[in-house]
Q: What sequence folds into this?
């Protein structure tokens, strides 16, 4: 007979899952692409914690009133590391006013920096950004006659990720394109907190289909009433029109 | 006469070949999907983590968990797979994508491209553009030939901060098509839009190019 899961990763809500972790000056990774697959409950709880001077690593910065935009409204973010921040007016205002530090990373470089950080790889070489502003100040190295730049791995004090389903061991599966940065960032948090739509019993997730093994997840909450806001609602009158 | 945006997209779509994996940039390049020939099989990649992108959903089928890189709601196909951002850019950076069609603010005669930043204006970020131009096997730029002031966007040298150096293989504008066989060769004007002649293209182009009509 299998032992039951003893280590309890499950917390009552986002607030209790952040207890003891949401401190001033920490580095926070947040999964999601646009507003798709963002850890919306944990971001709200981080706002309510009042923790400030945060460095946030996230592909985007939310919109004015949702996602990481909530932490910008309250001026809790000191620095953003992102690839694209075009949908947020408050972001623009704070950045142009010199109140917010910003580091742009190419999207693939950002993903690989998180992957490397989580995998214990402090640096790697990529051809992305060679000959551009991104390459300035970085080590250049030739491999087989082609030039690459060195990028560093990223880790975070806490990684906030959103998944579809979890089991009590913290094994996660994601749904459709809501996966994006979430499994990558889950590996790179010193403490990773996952919020999920549904908690299932032990053995109910097919072990062959688990996308984030539970070792990467330290804390777990089940979110309620997901808003899952849509940025560009594009529809076709009848099925069959190409994108 | 010159090509409309849809005609430009239709022309670019002729570069798609059977079996290709293709990434289409945001904006005008997304129109290319409307002109994929029925006799070829093309799989569209979306860098937020999807291979095998389907059409826009009907109102009943909208799913907040299913979007493309332009954050538009879309649908899946029977061939569709989903993956993480790290895997997505392994496909892109690793040279597994056959073709990417992108918009641009400027292209230079040496194949440099600038499409992410105008100094002095709010910078939104490069997103996946730098990874695409660095890693995808073939890069086609789809852009208006001139800017709003009527100045050439195909230049001797880019004036804006670059997205990549010596990466562009083909430029499709409203006036015609420029192509080069490899990254050491100059661009050649290989096709003109209806009613456009070489003199007009020369007058409106700063970049040096050969004529091979």
A:
């Amino acid at each position: 007979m299998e032992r039951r899961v003893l280590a309890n990763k499950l917390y009552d809500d986002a607030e209790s899952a952040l207890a003891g972790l949401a401190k001033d000056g920490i580095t926070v990774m947040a999964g999601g692409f646009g507003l798709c697959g963002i850890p919306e409950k944990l971001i709200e709880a981080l706002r309510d914690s009042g923790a400030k001077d945060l460095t946030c690593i996230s592909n985007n910065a939310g919109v004015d009133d949702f996602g990481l935009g909530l932490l910008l409204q309250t001026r809790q973010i000191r620095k953003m590391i992102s690839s694209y921040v075009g949908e947020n007016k408050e972001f623009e205002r704070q950045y142009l006013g010199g109140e917010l530090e910003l580091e742009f990373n190419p999207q693939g470089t950002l993903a690989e920096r998180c992957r490397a950080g989580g995998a214990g790889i402090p640096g790697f070489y990529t051809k992305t950004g060679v000959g551009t502003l991104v390459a300035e100040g970085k080590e250049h190295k030739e491999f087989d006659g082609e030039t690459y730049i060195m990028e560093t791995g990223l880790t975070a004090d806490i990684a906030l990720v959103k998944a579809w389903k979890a089991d009590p061991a913290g094994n996660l599966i994601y749904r459709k394109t809501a996966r994006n940065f979430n499994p990558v960032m889950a590996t790179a948090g010193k403490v990773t907190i996952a919020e999920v739509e549904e908690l299932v019993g032990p053995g109910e997730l097919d072990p062959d289909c688990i996308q984030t093994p539970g070792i990467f997840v330290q804390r777990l909450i089940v979110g309620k009433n997901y808003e899952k806001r849509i940025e560009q609602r594009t529809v076709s009158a009848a099925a069959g029109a190409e994108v | 006469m010159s090509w409309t945006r849809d005609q430009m997209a239709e022309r670019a779509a002729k570069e798609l070949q059977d079996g290709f994996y293709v990434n289409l940039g945001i904006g005008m390049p997304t129109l290319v999907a409307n002109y994929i020939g029925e006799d070829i099989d093309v799989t569209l990649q979306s860098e937020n983590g999807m291979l095998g992108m389907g059409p826009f959903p009907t109102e009943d089928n909208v799913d907040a968990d299913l979007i493309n890189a332009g954050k538009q709601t879309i649908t899946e196909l029977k061939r569709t797979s989903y993956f993480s951002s790290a895997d997505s850019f392994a496909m892109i950076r690793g040279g597994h994508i056959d073709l990417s069609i992108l918009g641009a603010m400027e292209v230079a005669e040496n194949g440099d491209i600038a499409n992410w930043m105008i100094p002095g204006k709010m910078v939104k970020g490069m997103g996946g553009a730098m990874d695409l131009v660095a890693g995808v096997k073939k890069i086609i730029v789809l852009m208006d030939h001139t800017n709003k002031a009527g100045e050439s966007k195909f230049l001797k040298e880019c004036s804006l901060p670059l997205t990549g150096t010596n990466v562009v293989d083909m430029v499709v504008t409203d006036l015609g098509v420029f192509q080069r066989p490899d990254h050491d060769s100059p661009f050649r004007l290989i096709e003109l839009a209806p009613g456009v002649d070489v003199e007009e293209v020369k007058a409106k182009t700063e970049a040096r190019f050969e004529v091979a009509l």
Chain A touches chain B through 62 residues (CB under 8 Å). Residues 107-118 of chain A form the longest helix (12 residues).
